[in-house]
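Lab manual, section 2.4: Encoding a predicted structure.

Procedure: take the sequence of the chain (159 residues), apply the prediction step described in section 2.3, and record the output as structure tokens. A sample record is shown.
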Amino acid sequence: MRGGWRLFAAVLLLCAATASQAVKWPSRPKLPVPSNWELDQLLSDFGGGPTLRSSNFTVISDKADDLNVQFVTVDAAGTTTNSSWSGPQNGEMRPVEGLAGGMFGIDRKGHARLVFADGTILDGVISVSKDKGTLMLRGTLTTKDGNAYRQVLVFNPAE
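Recorded output:
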């Protein structure tokens, strides 16, 4: 009988440890895999800062230890950039392939940072609606000369 109580106590401790980990690491904004997203120009607010003509991205993988995303972005001048990023969602800054000098990091809570080669920084939080029909990036774009713009970028599933 003692062995049964020990097993019960061990399982109870394991459950408590798992629950405490859940409290420390709230669920992250998980995206459908695979999925394609496009910038909604009408619902997005660039805060008076630099705008984009379009931005689309494809989620290849979305796991805590492996987020893999591909981007196609067209800036206000019409320049198209094809880039990609993959890595763990632990906040560590890693290079963005196809964006010379660009670095990106995201943590398990959806806090993201994109640093451009010229020193421009986009800090924000990514959230996903419960129905997985809308993704938002709320953040601040700070240009290399120190101008800051509060932005809300809204993405919808691409058709």
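Check your result against the sample. Residues 1-27 have pLDDT under 50 and may be disordered.
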